[in-house]
Amino acid sequence: MKKLTKVLCFNVALLMLVGCFGNTNEESTTDYLEKSSVLESTEEDKTETDESTSTSGLEESDTDDAKDITPEESANIDSDSTSSEKSNLNGSDKEEKEKTLSQYSSEQIEYARVWLQLGPNQGIDELNVRQIPAGKPINPNEDTSASYPEDVIQLAGSRLVDGSVTYSGNGDGTINVYKVPLRWGSSVPEEDLDENYWSNYTQSIINDASLIYVDPGNDGEIIELIEVLNVQ
Asked: β-pairing, 127-132 with 229-231?
């Protein structure tokens, strides 16, 4: 019995000893894994800290640059930018206005305004200007024709279908318009015409002259017509 008891005690002691060594190995392995995890975590934290510090440094630098500009300086910069834009716009408007008012003569502006208001065809590629002195016959093809009582201007396009405007200026914004045809002719045979036909007809043109106020018109359209003027 005593011998059996000794054997059992020996086996228990052996089991306990094996258990201690096993636990030691497991604890060692566990400690190693935990230490490795701690090292990796420490390295990641260090990397993130470095990146955060770098980003923070950049943000602080930008913030410092922004802080260097005072509210008064910022307001001045905005004011200078706005003033520059307004100056450019005003300069452009001024150039356009000066081009309309100062680059062309009063005669050129008058020709364009008259045609813009009274010209039969506005889609012309050329605006011819012919100056006719007083005393010239209204119908140059007839000896019995009445003569112009004053200097007149005849405006016409490059084609017959463009029509014409014959007028004299009064110097006060009004003109005397004479209904003179661009081309002369008659639907009545020459042998059937009364000997005073042309005299009476051309005199009626003078008597029926119309007094018309010339509208200033649109500057852009006036310039377009001036650009195609052909003064003879």
From this structure: parallel
Exposed/middle/buried for 163, CB within 10 Å: 0-12, 13-18, 19+?
Answer: middle
Q: How many other β-carbons are positioned within 10 Å of the β-carbon of residue 155?
A: 23
Instruction: Choose among 131, 135, 115: nearest CA to 123.
Output: 115
Q: Which amino acid is at 31?
A: D
Domain assignment present for residue 19? The answer is no
77 domain-assigned? no
Residue 188's pLDDT is what? 58
Q: Report, as an integer, the average pLDDT of 137-156.
A: 96
**What would the mean pLDDT of 96-111 be, rounded to a whole number?**
78
Residue 144 lies in a domain: yes
Whether 119 contacts 161, CB under 8 Å? no
Please check whether residue 82 lies inside any domain of the structure.
no
Domain count, the chain: 1
Taking 60 as the threshold, does the pLDDT of residue 119 lie above it?
A: yes
The structure tokens 């017959």 sit at: 160
Report how far apart, in Å, the C-alpha atoms of 29 and of each of 24, 43, 125 are.
9, 21, 101
**Model confidence pTM above 0.70:** no
Distance (Å, whole) CA 136 – CA 180: 13
Show the domain range for 215: 106-231
d(CA 126, CA 224): 10
Range with the largest mean pLDDT of 17-21, 84-88, 119-123: 119-123
